[in-house]
Amino acid sequence: MDVVVVGSLNQDISVVAERLPRPGESVTGSGHFLGPGGKGANQAVAAARLGAQAAMVGRVGRDEYGLSLVAGLEKEGIDVTAVGIDEEAATGIAIITIDQNAENTIVVSPGANMELTEAHIQQHSDLIAGAEVVLVQLEVPTAAVLATARIANGVFCLNPAPARQLPEALLERVDILIPNRSELGTLADAEEPTDPEAAVDLARRLRHRGVTVVTMGAEGALVVEEDNITEVPAPNVEAVDPTGAGDAFCGALAQSLAQGGSLQESVRRAVAAGAVAVTRRGAQTAMPNRAEVDALIRGDTLR
After folding, report:
1. Can you give the C-alpha Rg of the chain in angstroms?
2. Phi, psi (rounded to 5 degrees) for 250
3. Which of 71, 235, 255, 292 could make an S-S bridge to 47, C-beta 3.0–4.6 Å?
4. Can 63 be counted among the known catalytic residues?
5. Active-site residue, selected from the candidate residues 2, 79, 86, 247
6. Of all helices (H) and strands (E), which one includes residue 32?
């Protein structure tokens, strides 16, 4: 495999509204839609659409949402043999609100995702060990993430979302850490950085063996290596929905690295993939293909 993604699969329920509600307030929406999601599944779709041979390791419930999510990944050409079907827990869902400024709020009920066990990871150790890149997030138990890190032989990428404090035993195995600014602040037990200099300072506080790639939204990304700092700007696009942008970034980064791209080239392609994703509604539905990323890098107008 080029890329094995270990992580979540969720059914997304999205509502578009003029603005996000305040605590205790109801806001009338202007539209709603269902779509496949989950950070893990989104990232697997992103990698596959960009040309990677990809596999998904995760867990869903034996319900309509779960079976639909697995079938959707299969249609994308993703190996789903390591997606388990839980007989008791329901498939995870995410409730998403998107405002007219393309800002969003998300509440996730993880369901079967939290039933992903170390035993399940061990059962698929050959698949994980054989991957060029292993990509993991935090919508599954930390124990499953750590078990994956111990098995991975390829480049181990951790997208620490949703952010929480992590054991040193996990961080020390990370080759590429991919937080956004908020997640970086949480990991460093500090305020969210407001500028690149502050982000570099926090990234260097984290004790892990590899590189930190901080996603900076419309500002692009920041690559923090031991002796080098690189800012990768984002192209200007008209944002509609940011829901899948970070996942497009992570999946594109993993795909490019797995297929021989340098770190700098891979981050540049990941920034472009995230930029394409924000121009569309939804998560997996927004993931770009290779031609779209190539076109944006060339400076072509998105269609």
Report:
1. 18
2. -65, -45
3. 255
4. no
5. 247
6. strand 29-37
